[in-house]
Amino acid sequence: MLVKKSGFVTIFGAPNAGKSTLLNALLNFNLSVVNKKVQTTRDRILGILTEENYQIVFIDTPGILEPKYELQKFMLKEIKSSLEEADLIIHIIDAAKINLDKLKKIDEEFKDQIRNKKRIIVLNKVDLVTKANLLPVMNKISENFGYDDTVPVSAAKCENLETLKYVILKYLPEGEFFFSKDTLTNKPEKFFVSEIIREKILTYYHEEIPYSIIVNVTEFKERSENLIFINADIIVERESQKIIIIGKGGSGLKKLGNKSRLEIEKFLGKKVYLELFVKIRKDWRNNKRFIRDYKTGDAS
């Protein structure tokens, strides 16, 4: 009789440590937005890896930050709840920027959530450091922290991921699968459409713009077998931000729409008619009700 294993594995760490890159590499699919700017991931996203005898439900979380406004407070709650639900925790850190004092601070901050949990520390971006520099730090981590395993990887280059999977399976509990074998994520298509648009904003706009916007897909309809009609609102906090997004003569919004549409068509495998609108919602990042409504799909 085939013994099945299944469980929830939360990936958490500092911004730009490579959480989303690792998830995408493990799934062999671009599920989470990846960008060099911080706060790229705002929502926790489930990525589900299923093989014949196991199902790993990865939870990709926002980067650990000191919350300065309501949106970041919500993101911190997402991290804590994801840690509490986990059967196994992956703490991913940038191997080129290891700071043992910060590791201790994170352990202390999340001590209630990680207590009695199996934990793996993943040293990412090892292709950027020498073994001579890496090994002493790995030894210090093993001596001073309560991790059950340490695994060096390069998520961007897909190096040592099979070893990481092996270690994960070592701690994964036995049990029936939580999702059907063909399920890749818990999020609907319109969520990923909004994420694609937001990723393009992260890429093409700078300063405070990427952190002051939220994308709300208001319409997602199949008009024919091979055409999807999508309306999306880009919500900013100030008139000056709206002007920047739109650009001179609408050039900025047109470029954003074209780049987003091509990526969405690639993702959905269908032709897309995309309309973007820029709206102002003053200080939305500190509006608890707006953030709650957005997360539940009731924002307007």
Please give a structural write-up.
The chain has 10 helices and 9 strands. With 300 residues, the chain is α/β, with parallel strands linked by helices. It folds into 2 domains: 5-171, Rossmann fold; 189-295, GMP Synthetase, Chain A, domain 3 (2-Layer Sandwich), CATH 3.30.300.20. It has a 6-stranded mixed sheet, with helices on both faces. It has a 3-stranded mixed sheet with strand order 7-8-9. The longest helix is centred in the last third of the chain and has 18 residues, at 251-268. It is globular and about 60 Å long. It starts with a strand and ends in a 5-residue tail after the last helix. The mean pLDDT is 89.
Largest sheet: 6 strands, mixed
Q: Spans of 5+ residues with little confidence (pLDDT < 50)?
A: none
Overall mean pLDDT: 89
Q: If strands are numbered along the chain, what order do they take across the biggest sheet? A: 2-3-1-4-5-6
Helix/strand/pairing class, anyone? alpha/beta
CATH homologous superfamily grouping of the largest domain: P-loop containing nucleotide triphosphate hydrolases
Number of helices: 10
CATH topology of the largest domain: Rossmann fold
Strand content: 15-25%
How far the N terminus sits from the C terminus, by CA atoms, comes to 52 Å
Order of helices and strands: EHEEHEHHEHEHHEEHHEH
Instruction: List how many beta strands DSSP finds.
Output: 9
